[in-house]
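Entry 14. Structure prediction run on the chain below.
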Amino acid sequence: MRDIESNSPTLLCIVGPPAVGKMTVGEEIAKRTGYKLFHNHLSIEPVLRFFDFGTEPFGRLVGEFRRRIFEEVAASSLPGLIFTYVCAFDVPEGQAELDGYTTPFRNNGSRILHLELSATQEVRLERNQGELRLAEKPSKRDLTQSRQLLLDADAQYRLNSNGEFDHRADYLSIDNTALSPEAVAARTIEHFDLP
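Output returned:
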């Protein structure tokens, strides 16, 4: 309903651990709503051609690119933006970074929503080898390295909120271990009353 009332685009942040299906679900929601999908590797992959992941230049460039996209979309007449992000819930800087990206939308009075996906590690390791993932994310094509990065991230960080935000009206958590992207998209659109 608020999408109709506000002239500013809705922002839907899809968070969850690596290979949980954020991009695939985002694509399905985009097809059904007309929102644009900005999966996090759209900013990561070009910068990896020049700087290694985690270096200061890498972080600055990825962050600046994302901020500029968000500023322009928030000020546009687009209906909405879907952004995918791996958030380490036990690292304050991770949540602060995500909050920073939402600022242009918040300043424009946009509706800001969060969809959190979770799935078993076994299913995510299988999805890590998916055709769409490898097509969209060249840095994941070394399957041995990509698998190890997923395992390392799981061991080092808390990549799901474990119900921490379930009380919020702008937050929806879905375990998509056994759900199709279409089912998750339909549930999300219905829950948030998206167009």
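The longest strand covers residues 112-118.
Filed with the rest of this week's runs.
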